[in-house]
Amino acid sequence: MSPIDQLRGGVVISCQPLPDEPDDPMRDPYVQARVAASAVLGGAAGLRINGADDIRAVGELCDVPVIGLIKHGPGPVAITPTAEHAVAAAAAGAAIVAVDATARPRPDGQEFADTVRTVHETTSALVLADVSTFDEGVAAVDAGADAVATTLAGYTADTTGRDGPDLDLLAALVARVPVPVIAEGRYRTSDDVTRALDAGAHAVVVGNAITSPLWLTRRLIGGVTPGLA
Ligand SMILES: CC(=O)N[C@H](C=O)[C@@H](O)[C@H](O)[C@H](O)COP(=O)(O)O
């Protein structure tokens, strides 16, 4: 069974320290691997991991498929922005490599399709296209992506201002593209996960709501005393 098939109907836990907090003590492969293993013990079907060191550390402890990415640079295209980063994620042990597939210019001037081709030709990994819009999802599949995720909806200049998950984008992609569509981005409760699976999601990624004490604490304190966190 392919690693994407193994995720079917399951929850993927994203174990990543917040990108805007370089001092987060969770930024440590040892810590992330144990957070990941704990999530697997709890029933996670897969893991989403950032950075070659973390991917390697998680691979030593966990035997579920890893969606690996390498965040690099000031952005806006930061999730595995080049083919070189994608190959490095695969070499570290990612069975599936998540790659920014938005329409924005990439730092090396190449196309998303170039990364897909390189990954398929030089590694055994599959490619997950992280998109923010319907058109990007369709284009990513035309470019050869093995699966599409709604990861970047709400995180581009054209899609900002969204609070909860983008279930409309999810449903539109499920109806249109012939590859698995993974729900990702602000899924925080079991209701969110159920709604995504009901809408046809192949799997649902949950991140900060489980794996970031920093994010959770800020949110809780901000709720008690608005503006404090
Ligand atoms: C936009 C972006 O860069 N998202 C990243 C993708 O890898 C991660 O920072 C998130 O943790 C992950 O998507 C899970 O998200 P949430 O915490 O919403 O479940």
Integer average pLDDT: 96
Q: Can you name the CATH architecture?
A: Alpha-Beta Barrel
Low-confidence stretches: none
CATH topology: TIM Barrel
Strand order of the largest sheet: 1-2-3-4-5-6-7-8
> According to CATH, what is the class?
Alpha Beta
H-E string: HEHEHEHEHEHEHEHEHH
The backbone outline, from C-alpha atoms, is globular
The CATH H-level superfamily is: Aldolase class I
Query: For the report, how would you describe the main beta sheet?
Result: 8 strands, parallel, barrel
Keywords: Carbohydrate metabolism, Isomerase
Organism: Haloactinopolyspora alba
Enzyme class: isomerase
GO biological process, one term: N-acetylneuraminate catabolic process
Structural commentary:
The protein is of the alpha/beta class and 229 residues long. The chain has a single domain (7-224), classed as Aldolase class I (TIM Barrel, Alpha-Beta Barrel). It is 40% helix and 16% strand. The model has no long low-confidence stretch (mean pLDDT 96). N-acetylmannosamine-6-phosphate binds at residues 14, 16, 19, 48, 69, 79, 151-152, 155, 184-187, 205-208.
